Amino acid sequence: MTTPATTVTPRPPHVDPALLREDPLAPLAALRRDHGVIAMGPNVYMALRAGDVLDLLARQGRGTRQAEGHEYVRISGVPEGVTARLLTDFMLFANDRGHRTKRGLFARSFAHRRIAAERPRIRAVANRIVGDLPRGAGFDFTDLMSARVPAHMIAALLGLPPSEAPVFTQWVYQVSRAVSPVYPVEDHADIERACSALCAYVEAHLRARLSRPQDDMLSELVTNWKQDPTVTFEVLVHQVVGLVIAGSDTTRASFSMLVALLLRTPGNWEAVRADRGLIPGAVAEALRYEPVAGNLTLLATEDLQVSGHDLPAGSVLRLSLLSAMRDPAMYADPDRFDITRTDHPRLHLAFGMGAHRCIGEMLARIEMEEGLAALLDAAPQITLERTPRMLGFGGIRQITAMQVRIG
């Protein structure tokens, strides 16, 4: 656990981030047994144990804080440009009043009661997409199912034409690579082009609502902003872009992993077919077992001691959700995928904690639950031909191809 630093302690072992990119779970487990903290660069540390991760998250404002946008850009090595400006402005990388102001723009739209009321519409979208899936031939499940449900729903909620979802999601998948512990500088030109296109796309829709409001979330958002412009228009655009990214890419990978994990063990697939009451537990377990968000990034605002190591004020603290949710101190038999698990905490760690907890948590859960129910109803004989893998250990992790067949 974390305490104020009082004595000199050994430095944490240094680990090359490249060792964790392809298959992070086994090395993280080996490291976690002997080290609660590892060093990943000059003054950059990763906490691996559940107790430390939870404690550091709970200490926000009292020894730790969320990295501000400009700090995150510097830490991650994002070159100057539109991507850096997006990350600098987005609500996730803000604190205190700045965070409350940006998040508050969406508080009413993402209220639990309002999102819960969308469940029938989400199910209708999922039913239509499952009905369109090929029968009798293999296909990429992520492209034809997992990507479409969240993209069509975020489009429907915001008021974007569903027909444009395939276009803006291609930009989303490029830009999401920017949220990585090691920024892919070699792909910066592609990321910048996609980010520019995505920002221009959202800006055009917001400006259209300024002159001709419609009955949708974008109109409500921009109308409220016009009456009380608490942020600049560019910052408003960046908040919507960030929501589109978060609402499209993370659920896409999470849903594919949910279905793959269930199909990989036929007993689980048959269990949820027989008892739909197991669906919420299956969703929660998939989010734990292969989380899309591999870590959260904080800064130490004072000297800390974590798992016996002194970490100076100003340290970058990467809190490994991937490692913490495989820690036997948090979960019994953590390497077993168990859809009947009863030891999930009330607030699932996959969505973060505190003021920065994911604003779209309920939407993501409902999309996965209703997507799975639609698949079980209309395509119960689906089989897995190529199992996907989750790559990376932090930021938004990437998923490999998933091949399935129906009938």
Automatic annotation (TrEMBL):
Pfam families: p450. The keyword Oxidoreductase applies. Coiled coil: none annotated. Keywords: Heme, Iron, Metal-binding, Monooxygenase, Oxidoreductase. The keyword Heme applies. PROSITE patterns: CYTOCHROME_P450. SUPFAM superfamilies: Cytochrome P450. One of its GO terms (molecular function) is iron ion binding. Belongs to the cytochrome P450 family. This is Cytochrome P450. It comes from Allosediminivita pacifica.
